[in-house]
Amino acid sequence: MKRKILVISECILIIMLVICCFCKTSNAINTGTVYLESNKNIFEQGEEIEIKVAIENTKTVSFTTNLYFDNYKLEYISGPENTNVVDNRVIYVWYDITGGSSPKDGELAVFRFRAKENGIATFNLDGEFYDSERQVIQTEFRDVQIQIGKEEIEVEGQENSNQQLDSKSDNSTLQVLRLDKEGIIPDFDKNIYDYYLTVGNDINDIDVLAISENPNAKIEIVGNNNLKEGLNNIIIKVTSEDETQNKVYTIQVTKTNNIELANTNLEILAIENILLNPPFDANITHYSIEVPNDVTNLNIFAVPQNENAKVEIIGKDNLKEGNNSISVIVTAQNGFSKRVYEINCYKRNQEEQSKYEQEQEENKKKLEEIYEAERVDNKDDIFNKNNIIKVILITLLSIAIIIVIAVCWGKHLRLNK
Fold first, then answer.
1. pLDDT at res. 379
2. Is residue 19 a contact partner of residue 397, using CB atoms and an 8 Å limit?
């Protein structure tokens, strides 16, 4: 009797293992990477930019993408059919009209933009992608960054370059800002005026290379020599040729031997139900968001890398229509090193909100129509394919179970002899 129980138990265990393997195989999750590519890395103002969306390691039969771009530096030109543009977001919908027999891999779409302003511009992507079984593909996204305008490393290079400089007499904007020490945060942008740097106690002087857009503008640099321990401010003041305009760029330099005490990085910066553009990076200090008309307050989650640093958030409440400035101020553990993360929050007015909701509803209906058309046109074909697959799998499973039972029963008979 004990031998019979042992044999039966072994049979049941083997059958359960077969069924588990079958279940795991049936529920496997499809994964892939969706990435962006530009036709080159550096562009001049007015030049056309091609951004390709592509997928690798999997195939897709339908998807919806959101391509985000800097609409201050870039102008959208064109894209494939089923494309809508809302402010700085390009929405693109695609599905396989054959019902899944012609899935896509590799290149998915190409979008064209025009370069408007010099600087670094980042393209970000998100969305949902589906495989031939209508299962969501677990997707990793890779963004792309381009540079608009060429910068000369040496001051002498500016005099002989063919760059498109703005020589208006009232121009007080910097074109290049570089230091002989690494680590300045964020990367230079002519429209960003506050920068941060931490150096060791062995650094006494910092060489600053500052080039104005108008070669005849006057540049004054103070505070970069004889650095003291603690907080130092390097001031770069640019005065226009006609002396009517001036701009001040500031670099806050912390001189210390204890880098962690001067840590002003955020580990997390997120806003409930709102996406930051660009996505959060500790070394990026300027972001933009857009919120619905009925939003008056934001729930902002900001966590510093150093748990002893302090975070203060200003401007997240009582939002008005139009642009709102939000500051997330991080004060390091040493009490004097600070960094400010700026968020430009645009609150849609009622007209813009109505237009946005209408576009969202149209996109939703379009997706529903696509999926419904696919379901109706291919219902019988998919049903037959699924039934055939199920019959084959069930048959294979039944054969496996019969074989297992036969093996176990044979073992049982041998034991009884």
1. 56
2. yes
Answering whether pTM is above 0.70, one says no
Tokens, residue 393 = 């799998």
Answer with the residue of higher pLDDT: 11 or 273. 273
Rounded to whole angstroms, how far apart are CA atoms 95 and 129? Answer: 10
Q: CATH classification of 155-257 is 1.10.3470, yes or no?
A: no
CATH fold match for the domains 31-149 and 155-257 = yes
* Domain parsing of the chain, residue ranges: 31-149, 155-257, 266-350, 385-417
> What sign has the CA pseudo-torsion 11, 16, 22, 28?
negative
Does the domain at residues 266-350 carry the CATH identifier 3.90.1200?
A: no
Quote the pLDDT of residue 320: 95
The C-alpha atoms of residue 116 and residue 124 are separated, in whole angstroms, by 18
Within 149-265, strands assigned E span: 174-179, 194-199, 208-212, 218-222, 230-239, 246-255
The fold for domain 31-149 equals Immunoglobulin-like (2.60.40)
Q: Each residue of 111-133: pLDDT tens digit?
A: 999 999 888 788 888 889 998 88
CB burial class (10 A; 0-12, 13-18, 19+) of residue 123?
buried
pLDDT at 306: 95
